[in-house]
Amino acid sequence: MTETLTLPPTPDGLARAADLLRAGGLVAFPTETVYGLGGDARNDRAVAAIFAAKGRPSFNPLIVHVPDLAAARTVAVFDDRAEAVAAQFWPGPLTLVLPLREEAGISPLVTAGLATVAVRVPAHPVAQGLLRAFGGPLAAPSANPSGKVSPTRAAHVLAGLSGRIAAVVDGGACAVGVESTILGLDGPPALLRPGGVTVEALEQALGTPLPIGGSETRPNAPGQLASHYAPGAAVRLEVTQPAAGEVWVGFGPCPGAALSLSESGDLVEAAARLFHLLRQADEVAGDRGRIAFAPVPETGLGRAINDRLRRAAAPRG
Ligand code: AMP
Ligand code: MG
């Protein structure tokens, strides 16, 4: 348990919040849609801590918040369509899914290992102030425990997450109260989630009708992320005795393991390393190789880790 601070939306309060974020802490803050639970999008452990605080059972991708279009361009690749809608609707309740810029150093936990990234420029002055004080991209899902209603006041955030996050910046009630609209522009335009910006306004801006996303090639929900990174090597789970030739990835004490999710058995560390380790184990094992993961407990973040590992181990077509 940490004691959750309530900070005022003053320059001092925002400077304090930015310090907590730089130290890898989580800070909830108001946006025009709902309160977001912010963490440094480049810090694997901070992003893992977001999933832990929310109790999310799977690693669905998070939205990256930046202060302006220039900052957004450093995170994602903008084509003419993306430039046009960004110019018209940012800052505001519109999230764009665009090709990721690898060099931005966004944690693979933010994108769930995808080659795309969801990015948005919030209009709320407190969100703007915090992003500028912090000076980097913030991953921020809604600041509520998984499965609960999104918070539109600091008191709602505290009711759900007090003791699990470093601070909440109290900026009063949110104006919009529904989540941002998510527009996929990493291919043909697709509406991935309805929200604060209307479909009609987007269709007018794009000059084309907007199909509702969600086909196998256009994932819009956690379980539909078909393009999740799948290792080339065969993956076996819950392995306490690896077979000869298997690359064993440990969790907790696993003498002889080639790699480890966390030597000390820390689930936050394991989540932070997970996507890096999937790739690393794949490289060590080689194309026809075999990877064996030690058991990870099905509690807290372990559920999200096991969900991801089961996808990696699932038979592929
Ligand atoms: P939340 O952060 O709780 O508002 O939810 C974020 C939403 O954005 C979820 O519905 C995600 O599935 C979606 N999302 C985030 N990143 C991507 C992405 N790269 N591709 C498709 N959907 C995404
Ligand atoms: Mg939510």
- How many β-strands, per DSSP? 14
Task: Give, in order, the helices and strands.
Answer: EHEEHEHHEHEHEHEEEHEEEHEH
Count every helix, treating DSSP H or I runs of 4 or more residues as helices: 10
- Full CATH superfamily name of the largest domain: DHBP synthase
Strand content: 15-25%
Q: Describe the strand arrangement of the main beta sheet, using strand numbers.
A: 1-8-2-3-7-4-6-5-9-10
Q: Roughly what is the average pLDDT, rounded to an integer?
A: 92
Second rung of CATH, namely the architecture of the largest domain: Alpha-Beta Complex
Shape: globular
- Report, as a whole number of angstroms, the end-to-end distance: 44 Å
What ligand molecules are bound, each kind once? adenosine monophosphate, magnesium ion
Task: Report on the architecture of this protein.
The radius of gyration is 20 Å and the shape is globular. The chain has 10 helices and 14 strands. The protein has 2 domains: 5-206, Alpha-Beta Complex (DHBP synthase); 234-313, no CATH class. Strands 1-8-2-3-7-4-6-5-9-10 form a 10-stranded mixed sheet, sandwiched between helices. The protein has a 4-stranded parallel sheet with strand order 11-14-12-13, with helices on one face. It is an alpha/beta fold. 32% of the residues lie in helices and 17% in strands. The longest helix is centred in the C-terminal third of the chain and has 19 residues, at 267-285. The protein binds adenosine monophosphate and magnesium ion. Residues 60-63, 97, 111, 114, 116-118, 141-142, 179, 182, 192-193, 219-221 line the site of adenosine monophosphate (AMP).
